[in-house]
From TrEMBL:
Signal peptide (from-to): 1-22
Originating organism: Sphingobacterium alimentarium
Protein name in the entry: Late embryogenesis abundant protein
Matching PROSITE patterns: PROKAR_LIPOPROTEIN (PS51257)
SUPFAM superfamilies: LEA14-like (SSF117070)
Top-level taxon: Bacteria
Keywords: Signal
Lineage: Bacteria, Pseudomonadati, Bacteroidota, Sphingobacteriia, Sphingobacteriales
Length: 203
């Protein structure tokens, strides 16, 4: 009986050790993934599509009458869906579950969200995950002026004006284990936004 008990304990410890190693390997793989913003879609400001800004091939802030009301209510929402492609270049099969995402403007948090997915990526496999957000620009607009903020969103190409970060997790044994810290996916996220805006207004 003692031998059987010892054997059960030994097997249990071996299995726990294997799970721990697998957990570490998958979390480490998350840091080696390739993350790319493929597109930014369905962008709306103050409840209106960015097509509302299109005036003779340019951008007209005055064409958005909802701006005044948004400033009065202190709610100037920027909404969009970010299509994020995740590619696993490692030999570790990784099961990605919930992950948090953070959008920063000028180095300050603008929006935080999370998404639950059931993604199983082997070596060389990819998947596109849509990340939706609704951020209130009122605070930034009050500090910098609405004209400048919207102009920066439409035309800023770099300088880390907007950045996108994520904190993914792997699921093992029904439990999520998050990557330690946020991974910067796109430090020039404003460039992706500007590119998407220009595609729309130049149609």
């Amino acid at each position: 009986m003692k031998k059987i008990g010892f054997l059960i304990i030994a097997v249990s410890l071996f299995m726990l050790s294997g799970c721990a190693l697998n957990q570490k390997a998958q979390i480490a793989a998350l840091g080696q993934f390739n993350y790319d913003v493929t597109s930014v879609q369905n962008m709306r400001i103050a409840g209106r599509d960015i097509n509302s800004f299109n005036t003779d091939g340019g951008v007209s802030i005055s064409s958005l009458p909802g701006i005044a009301m948004a400033l009065l209510t202190k709610d100037l929402p920027l909404e969009a869906t970010v299509n994020l492609q995740m590619t696993n270049p490692t030999s570790t099969v990784t099961k990605v579950n919930e992950f948090k995402y953070l959008i920063e403007m000028g180095g300050k948090p603008l929006f935080e969200g999370s998404v639950n997915e059931n993604i199983n990526l082997g070596q060389g496999q990819s998947m596109v995950v849509p990340l939706s957000f609704r951020a209130n620009l009122f605070g930034v607009a009050k500090e910098q002026g609405i004209e400048k903020v919207l102009s920066d969103i439409f035309s800023r190409k770099s300088d880390a004006f907007l950045s996108l970060k994520i904190k993914p997790s792997v699921q093992i044994g029904g439990r999520n284990y998050f990557y330690p810290g946020y991974i910067t996916v796109d430090k020039d996220f404003g460039r992706s936004v500007s590119r998407s805006v220009n595609k729309v207004i130049n149609k």
